Amino acid sequence: MSGASGSKKSILLVVMGIAIGMALSSLRQDSNAWVEQMSQSSVALLGTSVNGGQEKTVESSLRSGEDERRMGTNNAPASTSDELLTSWSVSTERDFFKIAEGYGTDKVRGYKNLPKCLEDESKCDRPEAPERQCKVTGHFYNTMYQRWLGPYSNDNVEPFQFLEIGYFNGNGFDSYTDFLPNAEKHSMEISCLPEGPRSEGKWPWGNFARHNRNYQSLLDARRLHCGDASDFDFLHKIYSTEMQRPDGTAPALKVVIDDGSHVSEHMAMSLFFWFPRIAPGGILVIEDIEPMSEASVFRRQIMPQVHHDVHYCGLKEYGYGGKGEPAPCFPTIQPLLKSIHCEMHICVFERNDVPASDPPKEQSTIPPGAFDAKKCLFESK
Ligand SMILES: C[S@@+](CC[C@H](N)C(=O)[O-])C[C@H]1O[C@@H](n2cnc3c(N)ncnc32)[C@H](O)[C@@H]1O
To answer: 189 alpha carbon to ligand 1 midpoint, in Å?
Structure first.
């Protein structure tokens, strides 16, 4: 190849490169303009929607993302056309963040507390925490709730049953009430037991629930159930009489949320009691799986065993050290378990398609040795 023809080819390649670059950049601009236009037109279209603007429009989904970015709690990149298309296709979902923020529940209060704490350390609850979401009390649970409960918030969803453990002053329950209009919602709370000593099965420390404006009507409708959500007899009585009613009128139980005591034994009880009773495809959510003394045993001992069970095949040759894999860690949970999904301090346990059942007490309570992960994960293999 002569030097002249070589340099002509190089010039041609450079020119072609510039032309392709310009074409690509113009395409990108076009697609950005399209995305922007689509965002605006969908906002215009959906901005007129019903239900007091509580539905999740493209605008609101972008706005909450922007808020998160502003507060430095969201590492996600700016919206892409994929995100917009997803928002478009789920545009009738209600917006959990907006609703929960309105009621002041601690499920999303981290967004309010964190910026103040980052500006002034004296406003942090745990300034020494290197992980910034841990510097404040108040959580960032809207992303998990939007992802997992968002589809249930649509107007056209089949009626279903929902249970929250831990009513407190009802701010969380009020949020779920607006967010999930088609749910038959139940809650359990210990502090509305009759006042008196614990030794008599009563509650001496004041009734937190009575401050809610719906307290009496929820009691009258038998949707708020006063009792100890770690007690099998109480759970079973409420489940079999008020939830799965003998006349068969109850919709399928799809969602159970444990926001109760956050004591490891109680969290484990929620898993072992409720998971078999949740309908196929439903979820159990456990909140506040935090590194604090009450919840840590659940986080360190129970969670790894459930994780083991997600991957369980039951084939001997898959075992550790060639000794086989003789049993799931939790034989009453593993056959029902599709997946577990966690974000900081909150996990979702997803049911597979095995039908719900009402197993006897010995299969609905914490099995012996459950709090010693070593026994299942290492010693017995
Ligand atoms: C974290 S607060 C619930 C907050 C509420 N879900 C919200 O989002 O606003 C926990 C509540 O669980 C209640 N609780 C504690 N132990 C319980 C138990 N064993 N059974 C039922 N409720 C319990 C407490 O009295 C308290 O009201």
So the answer is: 6
341: left (phi over 0), alpha (psi -120 to 50) or beta: beta
Ligand 1 in reach of 285 Cβ (< 6 A): no
Q: How many whole angstroms separate alpha carbon 240 and alpha carbon 97? A: 33
Six-digit token pair at 195?
């006042």
pLDDT in tens, 263-319: 999 999 999 999 999 999 999 999 999 988 999 999 999 999 999 999 998 887 666
Ligand 1 near 229 CB (within 6 A): yes
How many alpha carbons lie under 13 Å from residue 64 in its C-beta half-sphere? 21
Contact (CB, 8 A) for 134 and 114: no
Q: Calculate how far, in angstroms, residue 329's C-alpha sits from the geometric centre of ligand 1.
A: 29
The predicted model scores a pTM of: 0.80
Question: What is the Cα–Cα distance from 359 to 332, expressed in whole angstroms?
Answer: 9
Nearest 5°: phi and psi at 176? -65, -35
Query: What angle, 0 to 180 degrees and rounded to 10, lies between the N-to-C axes of helices 81-89 and 58-71?
Result: 130
Strand order in the sheet with 183-189: 224-226, 183-189, 160-165, 253-258, 283-287, 346-351, 337-343
Domains of the chain in start order, with CATH, are 143-379 (3.40.50.150)
